[in-house]
Structures are given as structure tokens and as C-alpha cells.
Write a structure and sequence with these properties.
This protein is an all-alpha fold. The protein contains 13 helices and no strands. Helix 2 runs parallel beside helix 9 and helix 6 crosses helix 7. The longest helix has 31 residues.
């Protein structure tokens, strides 16, 4: 970016901190959180930019090269609401703020006891002088953890009852990325924040990691005939690759028990752990069966949240056989 846009962004960030965020923080005696609040404002503004970019670039792509065309897009509207809540709700940053004091206390106690928890820069000191390499290393670690978090959300019944909200959409678009149950979002934010704190991710890098991950996720759900090519499909999760993760049905005889293509950024994890499914066909998306009623694909935000709770409770206290 040129100096002009950067200066405008930083000025707006500073104005929001001084005029909107700082007064209530100081009034509540939370002045020590101003630096975190400054990063939170950056994330909020980046979320606004992501929404704008998604609409200006990805939405025209969906209109020009759609996989599916629906006469009624009512089911998509709720995903737009999810997207605004996700991009501007800063749930992961909230988890980071809530967990940071606890980790500082635990870290201080361990150090006092003579144990220094290893962090990424401690293990690889060269990363301190190579910020881009450090950022990429964080990204790889996060993506590896995200692969397993995502895979567990499909294999644990109680978690699947919540995550199924994300898969219930049969009109998958760029907005579907943010279609998640609030408890599922909370667990995702918790996992993301714990990993960040364990490996010592600076708050500024934390915001950048969130932006990269969510931008790729936004793209991977787009309703457009878009492929990254024979090589690119193996390097980064594409819309075609991820669509098979949302497939209404996998072909008969597939070897995957809980689904396929769990990777968020890098398909290599699916390749290594035997959950990769590569094929040129483009499937329909949604849930053919599962813990949610068929109406979940068309119901509103609060109804979907309640349906997820009902599914979760059913895994804890299933109805006795009759």
C-alpha cells in the first residue's frame, strides 16, 4: 500500500482508540489493556476491509462463474449475518484477552519454580531476526493444529452436533465460511488463543495470522468454478478442494469415516494423515443425514443456534430406545 492509505488506516485506528475505546477502559481501570485494545481495533478495521474485499472481488466471481445458481438466495442471507458477526465480533481476540492473564500467572509460577516454558523463538533463535520466517512458522503450526481441531470436530459426537451448523448450508457461498454455532466459534477461538499463548505469538502477529487464515477460508467457500491448477491444488486449499469437504455425499466405497479434506490452508496435512480426496468433479453441498433437522439449511440465526444446542444435548442424554 502507498503511504496515503496506510496513514489513513493508522489515523483511524488511533482516533477510534482515543475517542471510543480508551475512555471506557480507563474508567473501568483497565488501562493496562490499551495495547491489546489497539490491536483489537486493527483486527476490527481489517475485518471491515475483508468484508469489503469479499464483496467487491469474490461476489462478482460468483456471479460470473457460479457452480450453482439459485432463484431464491434467502438461505444465503443468514450466512451474511454470520460473516459480520464473525469478522467484527472479535471472539478469538476476546479469548486471547481473557486467557493472557492466566497464562502470565502460570508462566510466572513456572519460572519461579525454575522451569522456563519453551517458546518458538527459544527453540529457533534465528527467527527473532527474520520476522517473515517467524510469521510463516507460526502459520504452519497454527494450520497443523487447525487440521486436528477440524478433524476432531467431525469425529466427536458432541462437537459435530455444533459444527454441523456449518455443513448444513446447501447454498454454499463465500459467506458460508463464518456460518458456525457460537459455541463452536468459542471453542475455535479458545484453541487458537491457547496455541498462540503457548508458542509466544505477539499480539500483532496474532491479528495477522487471523487475517490470513480467514481470508483463505473465505476464498475456499466461494461459489465459483475456480481451481489453483495441478500444482497449486496441492499447495493451498482451493474452492474445488474444500467443496468435497462439504459434499452432500461422498462416492460409494470411499475410505473416509468422518469426511475428507480437513485442511484449512495447506492440503499437505490431509495427504500425510490419509484424509485427502482429489477429484475434478464438483459435488452438491449440505448434510444428507446428521444431528440436525433438514430445516437447519433454511432456518434463521437464532433457530440454528437452538438446533445446535438440541443436537448437543441429544449426544449427552440420548433418548432411550423404545
Amino acid at each position: 500500500m502507498t503511504g496515503g492509505p496506510v496513514e489513513i488506516f493508522v489515523s483511524l485506528q488511533g482516533w477510534l482508540l482515543d475517542r471510543v475505546v480508551q475512555p471506557p477502559l480507563l474508567a473501568l481501570g483497565l488501562g493496562s489493556h490499551l495495547e491489546m485494545a489497539f490491536d483489537g481495533i486493527e483486527f476490527f478495521l481489517c475485518g471491515v476491509l475483508q468484508l469489503a474485499v469479499a464483496y467487491l472481488l469474490l461476489r462478482p466471481l460468483e456471479a460470473l462463474r457460479p457452480i450453482e445458481v439459485w432463484p431464491d438466495r434467502k438461505a444465503v442471507r443468514v450466512d451474511v449475518l454470520y460473516s459480520f458477526l464473525d469478522r467484527l465480533g472479535v471472539i478469538p481476540l476476546l479469548m486471547f484477552v481473557l486467557l493472557a492473564p492466566l497464562f502470565v500467572l502460570v508462566d510466572g509460577w513456572l519460572r519461579f519454580a525454575g522451569f522456563i516454558p519453551p517458546q518458538l523463538e527459544d527453540l529457533f533463535p534465528v527467527l527473532e531476526s527474520w520476522p517473515l520466517a517467524s510469521f510463516f512458522a507460526y502459520l504452519v503450526i497454527f494450520d497443523f493444529a487447525e487440521y486436528w481441531r477440524h478433524r476432531f470436530s467431525h469425529s466427536l459426537n458432541w462437537w459435530w452436533a455444533l459444527h454441523a451448523i456449518h455443513h448444513s448450508q446447501r447454498q454454499m457461498t463465500l459467506w458460508t465460511d463464518s456460518r458456525n454455532h457460537l459455541l463452536d466459534d468459542l471453542s475455535n477461538g479458545f484453541c487458537f488463543a491457547v496455541i498462540a499463548l503457548l508458542i509466544g505469538v505477539p499480539p500483532g502477529h496474532f491479528v495477522g495470522l487471523l487475517i490470513v487464515v480467514r481470508t483463505v477460508e473465505n476464498l475456499s467457500h466461494v461459489n465459483a468454478r475456480l481451481s489453483f491448477g495441478p500444482i497449486g491444488e496441492h499447495l493451498l486449499v482451493s474452492p474445488r478442494y474444500h467443496r468435497w469437504h462439504h459434499a452432500l455425499e461422498l462416492p460409494a466405497g470411499h475410505q473416509f469415516r468422518h469426511g475428507c479434506n480437513f485442511a484449512v490452508l495447506f492440503p499437505v496435512w490431509d495427504r500425510i494423515f490419509g484424509t485427502q480426496y482429489l477429484i475434478q468433479d464438483i459435488p452438491s453441498t449440505g448434510l444428507a443425514h446428521g444431528p440436525l433437522p433438514e430445516s437447519a439449511a433454511r432456518s434463521g440465526f437464532w433457530r440454528q443456534q437452538w438446533e445446535g444446542i438440541e443436537g448437543l444435548l441429544a449426544t449427552i442424554h440420548p433418548d432411550p430406545p423404545r
